[in-house]
Fold this sequence. Notes:
Elements: H1 22-31, E1 35-41, E2 44-45, E3 56-62, E4 65-71
Parallel strand pairs: 1-3
Antiparallel strand pairs: 1-2, 3-4
Amino acid sequence: xxxxxxxxxxxxxxxxxxxxxxxxxxxxxxxxxxxxxxxxxxxxxxxxxxxxxxxxxxxxxxxxxxxxxxxx
Length: 72
């Protein structure tokens, strides 16, 4: 798959994603060149490695909706 340039040079605002369904937020992120990782789902924290990537967004999800987003 061809790598897209990052939307806004990799800068993002949580408000772009918060409140969207996981599917909507994932599509929006991927269309902007980001990869997505779920860090927490319905209060269950996922085990994550300590790698940091400038093109990755981490989502916290509750009830199928994104409640928080952070980079890395």
